[in-house]
Design goal:
82 residues; alpha+beta; Ubiquitin-like (UB roll); 5-stranded mixed sheet
Length: 82
């Protein structure tokens, strides 16, 4: 699985965290949409589907125009979904 990495997604809104695989070559904007949909399903709708969600890593909002790899996210990293 060299095209995906395992990260822990912290979701403060519902006070949960999930270990998920994300594609390293996708833009952050696409990855965020995938995570919002996935977390909404895993939480049985407690995390609402919304367009303005952002990903945060190392206390920085990730730029939607960069890929996961370009943002320096690696296997085992923790990211925050808000």
């Amino acid at each position: 699985m060299t095209n995906k990495i395992l990260v822990t997604v912290l979701v403060p809104m519902i006070e949960e965290e999930y270990d998920v695989y994300i594609p390293i070559s996708k833009k952050i904007k696409v990855t965020t949409k995938l995570l919002v949909k996935t977390i909404s399903e895993l939480s049985e709708g407690h995390f609402p589907l919304k367009e303005n969600s952002v990903l945060i890593s190392n206390n920085l909002i990730l730029d939607n125009n960069f890929t996961v790899k370009e943002c320096g996210i690696k296997n085992g990293d923790k990211i925050v979904l808000i």
